[in-house]
Design brief:
With 218 residues, the chain is of the alpha+beta class. The chain has six helices and 14 strands. The protein has a single domain, classed as M1 Pyruvate Kinase, Domain 3 (Beta Barrel). It comes from Novosphingobium panipatense.
Length: 218
Amino acid sequence: MTSPFPILSVLCGKVAPFRGDGQPSAIAKSPAVGHVAVGRLGLEGDEQADSAVHGGPDKAIHHYPHDHYGFWAETIGQHPLLANFGAFGENIATRGLTEGEVCIGDRWRLGTALVEVSQGRQPCWKLDHRFDGARVNAGVVRSRRAGWYYRVLEEGSVGAGDHLVLVERPYPEWSVLRVFGLLIAGEHRHDRPGLEALGSVAALAEPWMRRREKLLAG
């Protein structure tokens, strides 16, 4: 892995009826023009329909690697959404940086803001619905191509053409890929010591820390 990584697109979305369903959602995001302010709760102009499961300080910004789009085109076919950025509802798109190379607790300079990786993205049914019934949700879990969330430590601004620069890596053994595998993809069944050791990762978002405790108890 080398740093910095050029930011290909910065995307924001407004709450609107979900296609073909009517439920409110802001998963459909469009590239922002120019620079966007980065606040504690995310990008200015970006919305979330259900604050119980989306948004908040620990899920302020969603990053999805554009590297995965080729995999999805091979898996589900050349869906029109894959022709542009934002197919997975992401706020930040880059190439060259995936879940195996990003760690929980990583601190990155995102434009002028400072952000910290808090957890992977846990997929939901809306991905399948967005892709016209393709089994994207299960594919995300199976392939571990989930993306990740940032919390914002220092506010600033970001735009396409800026860079993502690694500042600090306090937990180099805890990639997003590994943590997603333990907490979401079922690998805890074969790695209880890893699940126990994950408790030392103070930067892990509280909902995922609670999930770890539930799995340990279960």
